[in-house]
Amino acid sequence: MTNIKKTPLDKKKLTRTIIISVLGFMVLIMSVSFINRIFANPTVAASVAALPLQDNNAHNVSQVQLQVLNACGVEGLAKRVKDYLVTKGFAVSDVGNYSGAVDKSFLIDRSGDLQNSVKITEALGIDKNLIKVETAPLKPVINTIIIGNDFSSLKPFK
């Protein structure tokens, strides 16, 4: 009969092995998520670029509910943008102030209709790559325009 010698369990080694395994698994999950986000879910810019050429009769922009928020602190700015948009045929339901300061103006799209969002950004001179898609089904306003510190470069102020 051979004598089998038992080695004591090294708790430090075991703990280290478990931690390395858990961290390795987390890195694997994050890598798969990153690859999925890059290749499986196109960005808004890619979606906008894939839009067909505009048909001005296809979408009635006056039916889109807009909100204009001032994010640069210049008094009366949101109302001036509202007045400009109304002359262009858009329906603006609300104006107000944004909760913080923003350098670049952008549009928040809650409808998923990027063609209308592109029409709005083109009317104002906002880069269409600055359309941010947000899902908020309980929000009554479909699109929100945030006017930033770059307001002087927008069409209503030229």
Compose a concise summary of this entry.
Helices cover 36% and strands 16% of the residues.
Overview of the structural elements:
With 158 residues, the protein is α/β, with parallel strands linked by helices. It folds into two domains: 12-41; 58-157, Alpha-Beta Plaits, CATH 3.30.70. It is built from four helices and five strands, in the order ααβαββαββ. It has a five-stranded mixed β-sheet, covered by helices on one side. Helix 3 (77-87) links the parallel strand 1 (65-70) and strand 2 (91-97). The chain is elongated and about 95 Å long. 22% of the residues are buried.
Main sheet overview: 5 strands, mixed
Spatially, the strands of the biggest sheet line up as 2-1-5-3-4
SS summary, helix count: 4
Overall spatial form: elongated
Instruction: Please state the second-level CATH architecture of the largest domain.
Output: 2-Layer Sandwich
User: What is the helical fraction, as a range of percent?
Assistant: 25-40%
What integer is the average pLDDT? Answer: 82
Radius of gyration: 26 Å
Determine and state the CATH class of the largest domain.
Alpha Beta
Number of domains: 2
Beta content: 15-25%
Number of strands: 5
| Class from secondary-structure proportions | alpha/beta
Q: Spans with pLDDT under 50 lasting ≥5 residues? A: 53-59
> CATH topology of the largest domain, anyone?
Alpha-Beta Plaits
Distance between the termini: 97 Å
Please provide the ordered H/E string of secondary-structure elements. Answer: HHEHEEHEE
